[in-house]
Queue: 3 jobs
Job 1
Amino acid sequence: MLSAILLLCVLSVISLFLGVRTVTLTGLLTGEGDQMMVFLVSRVPRLIAVLAAGTGMSVAGLIMQQLARNKFVTPSTAGTLQSAGLGILVALLVFASATVLQKMLVAFAFALAGAFIFMLILDSIKYKDVILVPLVGIMFGGVISSITIFIAYRYDMIQSLNAWMVGDFSGVLRGRYEMLYVAVPAIAAAYFYADRFTLAGMGETFAVNLGLKYKQIVNIGLGLVALITAAVVLTVGSIPFLGLIVPNVVSLFLGDNMRRALPYTALLGGIFVLGGDIVGRLIIYPYEIPISMIVGVVGSGLFIFLLLRGERYVTS
């Protein structure tokens, strides 16, 4: 844990002083105007947004995996992320003059509905194969994405939709990222309910026999996932597979006890996204590669690896 915190601190310092506009410690200490403005308006908000998005989506993925009892189920493989995108498009079309908070509420409602629909589909599956479940979620998300793209083409909103959905931190400035703060109480609530989520992950019959209000806990978990997903998508765009990579890596070392794994999941999520953001800013400097591309490449590769590993486990 200590080494991970030190790594996070080192990456944070690199992120704060990395960019086209030169910002130095000497310039900040002497109060140089331009450097102070860049540092406070752009660099610090970007760092906070990266950490909030990384920790939030990782914890959301951990919650989804517990509730669905499947290591491959995350907001991006269960239709939640795609449903939030549909909600944003509806907010842009129907509530064009809506505030950011109002758009957030619409995206949250659609993300929550998508999560509930996926859980209903999951309940109707007779054979909950470890590989079949996420594939069903991917197909469900594909249907939602197709509907979203169709509506966007119909109303000439495809460029606006792409601008909202591509995960990118380059546009994060002071006054345009604060919605991500909702991830902090959501993570705190997830830690508070961690033991209950762990029990819910053992199945409805087992959880009810232990006195757990199963439906209520599932609803709370899905609400937290939808809230985090809507805030991240609305603020910085879609970051696919993040909720898949980090929880699976942590579970390899710490097992499935959510209360024990959650702090490490949040910490590793922040480190992973921050490291990916730094790499994306350096590869084609002074330009940037969107974080969605960096995480998508790594996440898709790991997803295929885990699927093949799971298939060998099932067939062995």
Job 2
Amino acid sequence: MHLAHRYIASLFLTAALVAPVSILAAAAPQDATVQVRVYDRDHKDYHNWDDNENRAWGRYISENHKKPHEFKDANKREQSSYWNWRHAHPD
């Protein structure tokens, strides 16, 4: 009986010492809000394409009287023009 208590106590002690280490070693979930990164060649920087950037694209389309379409469907010249506009119109 005394041996069984010693065995159970050592198991609990081991679990108590290993638990914090295993929690720290677990991978943290990554932020799922960033879906796409777009490279701006003229300004040599990256932009996270999220809802905020989508609203800015909508404003750009509206202000420049263009037919609504997705950024990915725009040609390189229009994308470059958008990034120039975007850098002049920060949030």
Job 3
Amino acid sequence: MSLEQLIKDKIAASGPISVAEYMELCLAHPQHGYYIKQDPFGSRGDFITAPEISQIFGELVGLWCVEMWAQLGGGPMALVELGPGRGTLMQDALRATRHIEEFHASLSVHLIETSPILQTVQFHTLQNLHERIVWEERIEDLPDKPTLFIANEFFDALPIRQHVQTANGLRERRVGVDDAGALCFVMDGNGLSLAKGDSSIKEGTIIESCQMGKAVIGKMADHIRQHRGAALIVDYGYLGDSHQDTLQAVKQHLYHPVLSEPGDADITAHVDFATLLEVAASHGVATHGPVEQGKFLVRLGAELRVERLLATADDEQAVQLISGIKRLIDPAQMGVLFKAIALLSDHSFIPAGFYVPQRP
């Protein structure tokens, strides 16, 4: 039975489901889930993430981790990536820092990944880069020691709920089945009022919320606060309420109808950075950002790194280097929509990339 039919049967049995439940079924169903049954990354997949676009991204993230490790006093450290994809970011980070022997000797590498297919890909990518690599399913399974978290394009794939302001109050947007038997969006019958008052919210406004995102960043913050450490989160999103529908699906590098072919397309939503920062701060860690991805990478030395690589590149490599870094930092491409935030157990310093370097 297809996932679409399973979803329709579920709706027939108990009524329309939330957008969050629909997303979770599409992405993580144990048999038909998008991330469970295939490798969606890279030019042969459905989308390309920053590490796949340019090696410089992962290299700079690795050097950021070295600086955080040093600033936090060095010593044993867990390097953790949430949703590592094909392992490309971690591969570039470990390769770029391998000459810092004390850092590598102090590390254990932990990959939080639920897809068996991607775990296999990650193993083949990383098996010769570090002797201590462990796969985990949950943050709670991590060792009780100082930790550096990396999460690149992880939070955008966590399930969201959507509420719409109507004449009858705030109503939840859910997934149902229309008269023709196709999946469709419907409104929950019950109207709600926002606790803070909804008189200023225009009719038609969509409010998105991600309970799983709040839970995950709360666990990250708790771990960092209890054991010391830092977290770097890079994703696309906004500050404040979205007030619009950011739910989207991608298949074969093209936008795809969200309710079409469930389980065969990637479904994501823009990240609410303000809420993530608010939750993290409430758990007692220092928060920084958001900083636009372009500015963040330039502050870490992206342009200098390109120059060094171009010095030994052939013509084809030069074209790829220049186009790749432009895509990452250009405001018209990924430079502005994508943003970085950081969490720190130590409140006494600002991490690299989150302050503007002073010119000599």
